[in-house]
Write a structure and sequence with these properties.
- The structure holds two protein chains of two kinds.
- By secondary structure, chain A is an alpha/beta fold.
- Chain A is built from 16 helices and twelve strands.
- Chain A folds into two domains: 170 residues, Rossmann fold (3-Layer(aba) Sandwich); 171 residues, Rossmann fold.
- In chain A, strands 7, 8, 9, 10, 11 and 12 form a six-stranded mixed beta sheet that branches.
- In chain A, strand 1 and strand 2 form a beta hairpin.
- Chain A is globular, with a radius of gyration of 21 Å.
- About 4% of the residues of chain A have low confidence.
- The two termini of chain B are 30 Å apart.
- Chain B is globular.
- By secondary structure, chain B is an all-alpha fold.
- Classes of the chains: A alpha/beta, B mainly alpha.
- At the A-B interface, helix 3, strand 10 and helix 10 of A face helix 4 and helix 8 of B.
Chain lengths: 359, 381
């Protein structure tokens, strides 16, 4: 049935027909996409910036999650697309609970929502007759399909979504192949700290995108046996003795310098060897899944395996941003996104990612 | 019948109250002999503090010896002795850090918070003459939690949440007093009911405020911090948090233990206490203030950890009787031992930290259910 639907979808696209298409979303729901989608609302945070990438701008985005708007306002996309800072962001409450009337007020043709957090946050939107395309969180690879589904959602962007998804999967495959040849004893032991305040640490276990990214880029997630985002004590961190610590981009004060100055953590190999890095933040944060995840994988790969020959990240970033947002990055843009100042004292960071003058 | 005692003769009052402790019949007559139904009560009451001090010490030593980072027990002992006797270090810097910077502050904080919450519960039970009284009854926990959440929302985690919790806890207490009739709080006919209802109102406002604040919080940054803090954890124990918790809890412990004879008289009945010259209103205000202060300090240091104030005093009463000479000291020591043991489970059972508040509720509810059944059995038997 699913194959049949996909086939019919492909047929529609191939013939360029504008007739309504039915797609199966990531949670097996059949969604009828209207003939013309001019207004899209998304409660999924990363789908906001991804929609801007897929649709060459925020013109058709009429409602987003408050966190997504915060991210746009604070980050890079707000500068390229100032209009995105004014998109309505009053449709989602705690735990993505929809405010159906606020959603209706944006008069959307299509709504994007998480589908793996129970039907209670999806059904109220569907009940008022709005088509809801649901996405699934987990392995970052799932985001390839997000690109494709958003391409289908935004009328006329099907080919664009497919092209971006293909590119996403191509890099995924390339990185996976490189990591497959790395013997287990050469893989660094890595921990992602989702929360660091007050020495009450939270790590990313299985079923998180960070876990999948660490494994993909040739690392071992020391917290891989714990479910989701789990709280751990200092002793557990010391017992794991990770070679690399990745700091989240969410907390304002999460910086390598804070860990280097924390006497409790002085015994961690990652701290001793200065292999602590804070995630970059571009059109979206690089720790959760997004259209920029392929860049995040290359960044991780370069940090996990500094002697591996990899394409220069800055060049890749310039090409990717041109493709995603039609924006040409300057060297100072790149410094800001890669957080060169925050990561300045971390091992290999400047040598790997700093701008090199071309003679 | 006892003669009326002037208020300005505290020693005489205490002497009379000492006789009164634990040996009073319903009509207020003082029995000169120990309660015949429980002949061991006085003896055990005396032994209780020593046994419990031993238990707390054993729990603390166990707490220092175990953890997710493996340090051999003899190494732990050497690390602990190192400042006292001259030893050449045979241990790593990390092992020393684990013992001194992780386990020592965490054990001390568990002990002081456990003692504070248990004492607060015992004191409130005495004042209200209600075995179900608990810091939560007064709305102090909720108020302190709301204050702490505002601290996180407006400034950030760490000291702002502590300052907020203090302010919120004390504000909740002030609101309860005002609602219950100011200086006449809890006095006279229906006074206790009014106080409990005022606590209920303040607690409800606190809970609603927290729910709204969570809605307003940034879901990426603030919300997880708020949820983690509200569940209660000692993971962030350090010198700073000890400074937040120790002075107020010590102060309220001194107050409550100092007022133990007055409280025991109050527990028998307000009229009897007054006849013995107990300044009822002052004792009540001081005790409520002390219980509120201890609760706010505990919430400020490690979030909301419930049920300790309810379960521990009852366990102590069950094991050693309610002899008020020793009851409060025993309760403080038992609270310390209890929370140290619960925290050992919270941080060693699995790789992830189990929220302390979840564990105390999980353990507290069944223990309390058993106690309730026994109380019922006693009442019928």
């Amino acid at each position: 049935m699913r194959a049949l639907l996909c086939a019919s979808l492909l047929f529609c696209c191939a013939t360029g027909a504008q007739a309504a298409a039915t797609v199966t979303d990531q949670n097996g729901r059949m969604v009828k996409i209207p003939d013309r989608v001019e207004r899209v609302a998304t409660l999924v945070i990363p789908a906001a910036s991804m929609s801007i990438a897929v649709d060459h701008g925020p013109a058709r985005l009429v409602g987003i999650h408050p966190s997504a708007r915060q991210e746009i306002a604070d980050g890079f996309l707000g500068r390229i697309f100032p209009a995105a800072k004014r998109i309505r962001a009053d449709m989602a409450g705690e735990n993505f609970i929809p405010n159906v009337e606020a959603i209706l007020a944006t008069k959307p043709d299509l709504v994007i929502q998480w589908g793996d957090r129970g039907s209670a946050i999806v059904d109220p939107i569907a009940r008022v007759g709005l088509p809801v395309l649901t996405l699934r969180y987990g392995d970052t690879k799932l985001a390839a399909e997000w690109l494709q589904l958003l391409g289908t959602g935004f009328t006329g962007r099907d080919a664009r979504g497919k092209a971006l998804a293909d590119q996403f999967l191509r890099v995924h495959e390339e990185i996976a192949k490189a990591s497959a040849s790395i013997p287990a004893n050469r893989k660094p032991r890595v921990v992602y700290l989702h929360r660091t305040q007050g020495n009450a640490f939270q790590v990313a276990g299985y079923n998180t995108s960070m876990d999948s990214d660490i494994r993909l880029a040739g690392g071992v997630n020391v917290a891989g046996d714990l479910p989701g985002f789990s709280s751990v004590g200092v002793e557990q961190l010391l017992a794991w003795a990770p070679d690399v610590v990745l700091l989240n981009s969410f907390e304002k004060d999460a910086r390598p310098a804070a860990l280097f100055g924390n006497s409790l953590l002085a015994g961690l190999p990652a701290v001793k060897n200065k292999r602590v890095y804070v995630y970059p933040r571009g059109g979206f944060r690089w720790d959760p899944p997004s259209q920029e995840s392929p860049l995040a994988w290359r960044w991780l790969q370069a940090l996990f395996h500094p002697d591996m020959r990899v394409p220069p990240l800055r060049t890749e970033m310039i090409a990717t941003y041109l493709e995603l947002y039609g924006h040409e990055l300057t060297q100072s843009d790149l410094d800001a996104i890669l957080r060169m100042a925050d990561n300045a004292d971390s091992l290999h960071y400047r040598e790997k990612f700093a701008h090199k003058e071309v003679r | 019948m006892m003669p009326m005692q002037p208020v300005d003769r505290p020693h005489a009052v205490c002497a009379d109250l000492r006789v009164l402790c634990g040996n009073v019949h319903k009509n207020g007559e003082v029995a000169s002999q120990p309660n015949p139904e429980n002949p061991f009560e006085r003896q055990l009451g005396f032994i209780g503090p020593w046994l419990l001090a031993g238990a707390a010490l054993v729990a603390a030593l166990l707490s220092l010896a175990v953890g997710r980072y493996s340090v051999p027990v003899d190494t732990v002992a050497l690390i602990l002795l190192a400042p006292l006797i001259d030893l050449s270090p045979s241990w790593s810097e990390t092992e020393s850090q684990v013992v001194w910077a992780v386990r020592v502050p965490r054990t001390l904080l568990a002990a002081i918070v456990g003692a504070g919450l248990a004492l607060a519960g015992a004191a409130l039970q005495g004042v209200f003459r209600n075995p179900l009284a608990d810091p939560q009854i007064l709305g102090v926990s909720s108020g302190a939690a709301l204050g702490g959440v505002f601290g996180i929302l407006l400034v950030g985690t760490g000291w702002p949440s502590m300052v907020g919790a203090f302010a919120g806890g004390l504000a909740a207490l002030a609101a309860v007093f005002w609602l219950a009739g100011g200086n006449h709080s809890g006095v006279g006919k229906g006074g206790t009911v009014m106080l409990v209802l005022a606590g209920l109102v303040v607690g409800a406002v606190g809970a609603a405020g927290i729910a709204l604040a969570k809605y307003a919080a940034d879901p990426d940054n603030q919300l997880p911090a708020i949820v983690f803090w509200l569940l209660g954890s000692l993971a962030a124990a350090d010198a700073e948090r000890l400074w937040v918790a120790v002075p107020p809890i010590l102060l309220s412990a001194v107050l409550i233990i100092g007022l133990r004879f007055h409280l025991s008289a109050l527990a028998v009945g307000e009229e009897d206490a007054r006849r013995l010259g107990v300044p009822v209103r002052t004792v009540r205000l001081l005790t409520l203030g002390a219980a509120g202060l201890a609760t706010a300090a505990a919430v400020a240091a490690c979030g909301v950890v419930g049920w300790v104030g309810l379960v521990v005093p009852h366990l102590v009463r069950l094991a050693f009787g309610a002899d008020h000479r020793w009851f409060f000291i025993s309760t403080a020591l038992a609270g310390a031992a209890y929370l140290i043991l619960v925290d050992i489970v919270a941080r060693t059972a699995v790789a992830a930290e189990i929220p302390l508040g979840a564990l105390t509720a999980l353990l507290g509810a069944p223990i309390f259910a058993v106690l309730l059944r026994r109380l019922r059995g006693d009442a019928h038997g």
